[in-house]
Write a structure and sequence with these properties.
Layout: H1 2-15, H2 20-23, H3 26-33, H4 35-38, H5 40-51, H6 60-71, E1 76-77, E2 92-94, E3 98-103, E4 125-130, E5 136-138, H7 143-150, H8 157-160
Parallel strand pairs: 1-4
Antiparallel strand pairs: 2-5, 3-4
Biased composition (Basic residues): 1-10
Region (Disordered): 1-27
Length: 165
Amino acid sequence: MSSNNHRRNSRSSALGPPAPLPYHPHQPGLPLALPAPVAPVPIAPVAPLAALPPPPPPPPPPAATIVQTLTRHVPVPVLVPKPFPVAVEKLVHVDRPVPVEVPVPRPYPVAYPVEKFIKVDRPYPVHVAVPVPRPYPVPVAIRAHYEPLHHHHHRHHYLHHHHDW
């Protein structure tokens, strides 16, 4: 910038301002400055790129783990607002989250920690926690005791497959 001021003082008119302006005094500096920064820039990204490929593989294992977990008893929080058919083979006085095995006769959406839906193609005991706001007796020792309530409706498909049991 000091050079520009110096030119404008007196020599600028003699040198001819139109010539330096089109070329831009910054142009000569750019090529010199570019080579240095450009070299280190690609080097830095190259290292991260090489490290990136390994991380992608890990994601698949978690999915497989989830599948395996589903195959076994899966802890799932299930909110029970009212009497719900739960195979506990006895009345349970629930005053807090209690782990219970709930058989699912057909693909049934169950919300669990991962906030996903697990589909069970056949009756399978699913380990679920039943949180109840207050002490509440959960009656359902026998499915037959609950099915008759809606046996003639046939609306509840999960009950309709009772014959599997």
